[in-house]
Design a protein that fits this description.
By secondary structure, the protein is of the alpha/beta class. It is built from 13 helices and nine strands. Helices cover 35% and strands 15% of the residues.
Length: 437
């Protein structure tokens, strides 16, 4: 990848994100490559201009007249707990303090409980076996998972990767998005074609020799929200369930996200807090596996899954390498018009951006290695926000002396985890997990 160390002047005169990345150079070494692929964009309906009364104000924001209030709250010259602030000199001390504050903001810290994992099924996939596992994240809560075990796995000699599924407005299945199984519903296949170029990324990693675990996040897959009187079709999720039934469930789930979030807040917890706890407990579960080399564990996620990967690396130093695909920006740039389809209830941490920005969260992964993959045509995140985030991360990694452990690439695609992105990610994991001895 090309080295990236822009002066402020260079940043201001950068015309697009790919040029910006090319200028981010002198802070690190490597080469940046422009990738080509089909961008994902939403279809735009035909409309005609509608006259607007000239004596009424216009707001140019998704939240209309509320923007005047929010803009004053969200506009900040700096984030006080960012590692780049002069007051922070020691990385370990900074992480300890910020991590404690972050855990408080997540509002979810149950009593520890053994994983007590149970294998309830197995599927032979040739090079590896898919175990269907249930383990405890709390005394009362169990988490369903796929565990992909290479047939070459050796005791304490196998690197491991936690894969996080995305949001995608697709709730009926979760972990199945990343693991291709015999007889799957064609809707899952079509979804994978759209966002992963047809690849089952967890399966691909298992074929490369990693032990891989994928869980269902709360509200997805086996943990989806079912209501009184729901049809047997939604309970069974048959391989021939018609697309219109899948769509109907996904629409209902999307419309009810706010209700779960409000109920959790009323109960004294947060949705991202539960996700973060379950993800740390997934790491705890990996520590119970005899095959796993505990010094070679990483995580990978696309979209909301990228946020979860970044959060896990921020909270737990046992993660040595992290891939975050298509989930990086500086939050102030999202506020005016880009919250609607990006910052869902499952990722928003109340109060965090009073103190930390998303690139500061990524910096908490140090001294672990971090790869951030962006889509140059990703309409969910503004160019300016991505640039600001890339710069902030680079400055933090340089300050800590780990500039060789941050990898930022921009690919010429939309909001997808393309094959080219996957290839870059797998090489990154090979360098920072598989090839380590």
């Amino acid at each position: 990848m090309k080295s990236r160390n822009p002066s402020q002047k260079a940043i201001l005169h950068c015309s697009d994100r790919r040029h910006f990345l090319a200028q981010l150079g002198a802070l690190a070494s490597g080469s940046s490559v422009a990738f080509h692929g089909q961008a994902q964009t939403a279809s735009t309906p035909f409309t005609v201009a509608v006259p607007v009364a000239s004596n009424r104000p216009t707001y140019q924001s998704d939240i209309g007249s509320m923007w005047a209030t929010v803009s004053k709250i969200g506009r900040k010259p700096f984030f006080p707990y960012a590692f780049t602030q002069d007051v922070f000199k020691d990385l370990a001390a900074w992480k300890q303090g910020v991590r404690a504050g972050l855990m408080e903001m997540l509002h979810y810290r149950p009593s520890p409980w053994p994983s007590q994992a149970t294998v309830i099924g197995e599927t032979d996939q040739g090079d590896f076996v898919v175990e269907e596992v249930v383990f405890h994240s709390t005394q009362e809560t169990t988490v369903p998972a796929f565990v992909l075990v290479p047939k070459t796995a050796q005791k304490r000699g196998t690197p491991a990767v936690i894969c996080f599924h995305d949001h995608g407005g697709f709730y009926l299945w979760g972990k199945e998005k990343l693991v291709s199984l015999p007889g799957e519903n064609t809707v899952i296949t079509e979804y994978r074609d759209r966002y992963y170029e047809g690849r089952s990324i967890a399966s691909d990693l298992a074929r490369q020799g990693y032990l891989v675990v994928v869980i269902d996040a709360l509200y997805w897959g086996n943990r989806r929200m079912m209501l009184d009187g729901d049809s047997e079709d939604w309970w069974e999720r048959a391989s021939d369930l018609p697309p219109e039934q899948v769509n109907a469930f996904n629409i209902r789930s999307s419309n009810n996200e706010h209700l779960l979030d409000r109920t959790l807040l009323a109960a004294g917890a947060t949705w991202p807090g539960i996700n973060a706890w379950d993800d740390v407990r997934t790491l705890d579960y990996l520590y119970t596996r005899d095959e796993v080399d505990r010094n070679r564990i990483g995580c990978v996620g696309f979209s909301t899954g990228g946020m979860r990967a970044m959060m896990l690396a921020a909270l737990d130093d046992r993660i040595k390498a992290t891939v975050n695909a298509c989930w990086m920006t500086s939050m102030p740039y999202q506020l005016q018009n880009d919250i609607k389809f990006t910052m869902g209830f499952s990722v928003l941490i109340p109060g965090m951006t009073r103190y930390l920005d998303l690139p500061d969260l990524a910096s908490m992964a140090m001294p672990g290695a971090m790869m951030v993959l962006g889509g140059g045509k990703d309409q969910f995140f503004q160019d300016e926000g991505a640039r600001a985030a890339y710069t902030q991360m680079r400055q933090a990694f340089v300050k800590a002396g780990f500039d060789d452990r941050l990898y930022v690439q921009e690919h010429d695609v939309g909001h997808v985890f393309s094959k080219a992105m996957q290839g870059a990610a797998w090489k990154f994991l090979k360098d920072h997990l598989m090839d380590l001895v």
